[in-house]
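Can anyone check this?
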Amino acid sequence: MPRECQRSEYHVFQPLTSSPQGYGRQDLSSENQNYKGHGLSKGKEREQRASIRFKTTLMNTLMDVLRHRPGWVEVKDWLRENFDHTYMDEHVRISHFRNHYELTRKNYMVKNLKRFRKQLEREAGKLEAAKCDFFPKTFEMPCEYHLFVEEFRKNPGITWIMKPVARSQGKGIFLFRRLKDIMDWRKDTRSSDNQKDDIPVENYVAQRYIENPYLIGGRKFDLRVYVLVMSYIPLRAWLYRDGFARFSNTRFTLNSIDDQYVHLTNVAVQKTSPDYHPKKGCKWMLQHFRQYLASKHGPEAVETLFRDIDNIFVKSLQSVQKVIISDKHCFELYGYDILIDQDLKPWLLEVNASPSLTASSQEDYELKTCLLEDTLHVVDMEARLTGREKRVGGFDLMWNDGPVSREEGAPDLSGMGNFVTNTHLGCVNDRKKQLRQLFCSLQLQKKASS
């Protein structure tokens, strides 16, 4: 396993029967009850509990969801350190693509986006390439140090942010405005006297800091949004309707670049703030955030913003589409971190391969358990879906080897005039009602064809 993969949490699902026909025993019309662990007779429940086994390394909301899912059984000694994808059983599923770090390590993400932007400029022109201008100017350190210094001297006095490429939860991040700070960083990362000078420092990225973030109540925030990728070849991606804005606890100012409570919105950082309220947390649900923006700027501005955010998802996934090893055994639930500036322009900060599934409040717990339940519905180990669904619970099919339209049928993409993408980020998520209707409809189809 590559070193970069070891930081991710792997979850493996496998049917105990090798026949997909054996998965459909569940009473699909009772789906709204079933995913809560109710609504089955004892006989049916016993029959189901020989269906699918799972192994996970997490003990949080994911374990709660898996243990309450009818027909799913936890195993203790089945997960191996290394996964041999070549010899896996047909219906085994793993929660990561093998080289997912091409998108989720900060330096690789930027490298792939830069390459993809150049490709678009060659093949489609500058206008299309400009659709990739959603990440700040970034340099990998130390290998691009001289390029960074050249850029730094062109714009003296602006703020930069340093981030370790493979760490999370705000660890190792700092802001700076002087080249001397970089030299001090290089010395610090060589740490002890026992290390030789030729040992390389830890890789970082130096990124131009967004100095004009959109503020609510004087506080900085970013958005956490969830995208589920079921395949890279062809690219098939789902967007979850719910997510949240993560706020800092301290009013924003550029006069204090050393205060992490001002500039870092990570919950792991903010919960150590003296002003942090554990029950209230520091999050807004995306529906609340979208309504707030509409009241301030009008619905048209909000629609434009969210279309630009959709573009970030699609272009970032396309940038690694030919690099990621697409495997039918794998899927990926990404956590996107997006910052919005005062001009309502969204910026991609990073993509997380293992977004936090630990809840910081009751509202957070409900969001994440629903997210995970719907992820399992889309992964569909029970083989209940037809493959033609455009919505499953809170997930909307955003891309299916091309843009997906909200309208039924195959849209005319020649002019793209009336085309509206099938995304509903921050909109009403009536997932229970939709799941009830979906599985009732599938049950009726099954009866009609039998």
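Reply from J.R.: I decoded it. Residues 299-319 form the longest helix (21 residues).
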